[in-house]
Design brief:
There is one protein chain. This protein is mainly α. It has a domain at about 10-45. It has helices spanning about 1-20, 25-40, 45-60. It comes from Streptomyces badius. This is DUF2304 domain-containing protein.
């Protein structure tokens, strides 16, 4: 749960930065939001969730 909350927070921060810099228009953000909602209801959602979890585990296990 902590991974998904921090990932959502990171994505929100990035979206705000892109909106402020003009790199992301509001219409583009809405399309991405709708894509996320529709993608979450497909059969690919568990695979994407597992992939994000595995990537987060890999990154957290790296030591500089």
């Amino acid at each position: 749960m902590a991974i998904s909350i921090s990932l959502v927070l990171l994505l929100v921060i990035l979206a705000v930065i892109f909106l402020r810099n003009g790199g992301l228009k509001v219409s583009h953000a809405l399309v991405c939001l709708l894509l996320g909602f529709f993608l979450a209801s497909t059969s690919m959602a568990p695979t994407i969730h597992d992939g994000v979890g595995a990537t987060a585990d890999l990154v957290s296990s790296l030591h500089p």
